[in-house]
Amino acid sequence: MNILALETSCDETSAAVLKHGKVASNIISSQLAHQAFGGVVPEIASREHERLVVSVAAAALSEANIRKSELDFIAATSGPGLIGAVLVGLNFAQSLAFALKKPFVPVNHIEAHIFSTFVDDGTHEPARIPAFPFVSLTVSGGHTMLALVQDDLTYRVVGRTIDDAAGEAFDKTGKMLGLGYPAGPLMDKLAKQGNAKFHRFPQALLSEDNFNFSFSGLKTSVQTFLRDKPEPFVQAHLADICASIQDAITSVLVTKTLAAAKCFKVNTVSVAGGVSANSELRRKFQVACAAKNLALHIPRPIFSTDNAAMIATLAHLKLQRGLASPNDYNVGAFAVFTPPS
Amino acid sequence: MSVAVQADDRVVLKVGSVWQKTSEEIIPLIDTALNEAGLSPHDLDAIVISEGPGSFTALRIGFSTAKGLCFALEKPLVAVGTLDAIAASVAHDVESETIVSLIYSKADEFYVGIASRNTLIYQAFTTDEPSVKKTYLTISELEERLGKGTDAVVVGRVAERWRDVLNEKFHWKDATQFSAQTLLGLGEEKLRRKRFTALETAEPFYIKQFEAKTSERKFFG
User: Which residues, other chains included, contact A136 with Cβ-Cβ below 8 Å and sequence gap of 6+?
Assistant: First the structure.
């Protein structure tokens, strides 16, 4: 089974080919055009996707050394995401599938993140695939969500952010520190030289009897903290402040995820989404899961950021289980994630 | 949104229902048009797309879909200016020397194409000279541009509320004839002269550069 998948939900134009479940190519073109604006500008993202979509798809086929006629299925993200951005990949993919007379498989971007720990690039043993049921933390610039995942690929959302996403908390507080966009990776790097105990930023909802998150209070707290600090002080303690912010965000993510694992009596934890590339988050999860004897699965960073290999992988998992319903290339895009009922 | 298929001398034209459904309807509409024309996608020699200006998202739905077909079938993409096609759709039905084509943008602003009727009829698309001058104007700017007592015909497809305004100020004509079918003739001419649009770089003709504010907010430095 050969699948070509497209992903254009935010600011990455990506195409991947999966040959018999294994990644044969995964091309990601990250849009740099947004940096000057301090965040992703939807219209610019859509224009960039339109400009790049053919080149990226062609590169994915060529790197996988596969002809279009050898493809069995075409998949694409149908949402959630920036609607104008989703539409580019979705329409291109459906039109391609129609003309090649191949079935089209729409994929939910968030679900693809949940199952991104199943992406098989041939570098790991099958045993490293998460065992069902497991608790999945999806954590990115747009989403922070805990889900309980079953072996029929169904899942229940057991916790979500009630305001900002964790990745947004990194980017917005980083912006306050003048780190540029996106601030997350730089904050991770700076924090390595800092003292995480320098200042205690709030960890919200820890005492609540649920698995929801909140990061807007942290944002305000950082802003208040910085207000009366002279710039030389901030510059001198930049690494300490970064480490302290990072500690607040990552601690609450790990604590809540492990509490969910305990509550639902699962032995496996999976962490995905762009923020799962954060080195402190990975370290904390490794330590905590080892202590509780939980199996931990985190995808390689290339499969945790927005990428088409995870779209192709979920399409593959669904097709294997007969869960992909046929369509007439009339699948619409959607912007907002709706949890399954 | 409309789709036209030319099969030898026969044309099949299909029109979408509502603009909100463009993305969901476009491929089924292509499928229906091909079926009625007795064709399969593989029988197509080229895909013609209206390149804009117009709604940014609508243009991208058209381009992404057209690119998917061209990429799959390995057939050329031919882009035809939408203002050019609207002007050409009435060139044989009007007397005036100047034809102004309009596409609504926002507020009281329009994408505007200004062309001479003779150029449209006798030279359009047979040279590489742009036959339609394109710009972006408010209604009052257009009035100023055309001058008092102009005999220019102003043509387009606009919402009801604009029709009265335009009717009062100009020699207004509804572009009722304009559809994907209009693109076929113009596209064929470009195809004949091998004026293809490279798939790897094809983009809508937006006219307007998108303006976003650069980030100036900085707490330090």
Answer: A114, A117, A146, A147, A148, A149, A155, A269, A270, A271, A272
Candidate CATH numbers 3.30.230.10, 3.30.420.40, 3.40.50.720, 1.10.10.10; the one for domain B83-174: 3.30.420.40
Interface check B46 vs A, CB under 8 A? no
Per the CB < 8 Å rule, is B210 touching A235? no
Residue type, A117: T
One-letter amino acid for residue B115 of the chain:
A
Distance from C-alpha of B16 to C-alpha of A19, rounded to nearest angstrom: 37
**What tokens does B117 get?**
């009727």
Read off the pLDDT of residues A86-109 as tens digits, 9 standing for 90 and up: 999 999 999 999 999 999 999 999
Are B68 and A235 an interchain contact pair (Cβ–Cβ within 8 Å)? no
Q: Domain residue spans in chain A? A: 2-116+304-320, 130-299
- In CATH terms, the fold of domain A2-116+304-320 is Nucleotidyltransferase; domain 5 (3.30.420)
What is residue B11's three-state secondary structure?
Answer: strand
pLDDT band (50, 70, 90) for residue B118: confident
Please give, rounded to a whole number of angstroms, the shortest distance from the CA of B207 to a CA of chain A.
Answer: 13
The fraction of chain A above a pLDDT of 90, given in percent, is 89
Nearest residue on chain A to B63, alpha-carbon basis: A50
For residue B56, the chain A residues in CB contact (below 8 A) are 43, 46-47, 84
Query: Residue range A52-77: average pLDDT?
Result: 98
Model confidence pLDDT, tens digit, residues B15-43: 999 999 999 999 999 999 999 999 999 99
| Residue A56 · residue A27 · CB < 8 Å | yes
Q: What span, in angstroms and rounded, lies between the C-alpha atoms of A168 and A178?
A: 15
Torsion angle of C-alpha atoms A85, A91, A96, A97, degrees rounded to 10: 120
CB B26 within 8 Å of CB B68? no
Domain boundaries of chain B, sorted by first residue: 2-81+178-192, 83-174
B28-to-A95, A218, A330 alpha-carbon distances in Å: 10, 48, 7
Measure B29 CA to nearest chain A CA, in Å.
Answer: 10
Q: Which amino acid is at A221?
A: S
Of the options 3.40.50.10540, 2.70.70.10, 3.90.1570.10, 3.30.420.40, the CATH number for the domain spanning B2-81+178-192: 3.30.420.40
Q: What is the pLDDT of residue A284?
A: 98
Whole-prediction pTM value?
0.93
- Does residue A164 have a pLDDT over 80? yes
Residue A277: phi and psi, rounded to 5, are: -80, -15
Q: Over range A287-313, report the average pLDDT.
A: 96
Cβ distance A58 to B71 less than 8 Å, yes or no, reads yes
* A192-217 CB burial, b ≥16 within 10 A, e <16: eebebebbebebbbeeeeebbbbbeb
What mean pLDDT is predicted for residues A40-64? 96
B175 residue type, one letter: A
What are φ and ψ of residue A300, in 5° steps?
A: -60, 150
pLDDT at residue A250 greater than cutoff 90: yes
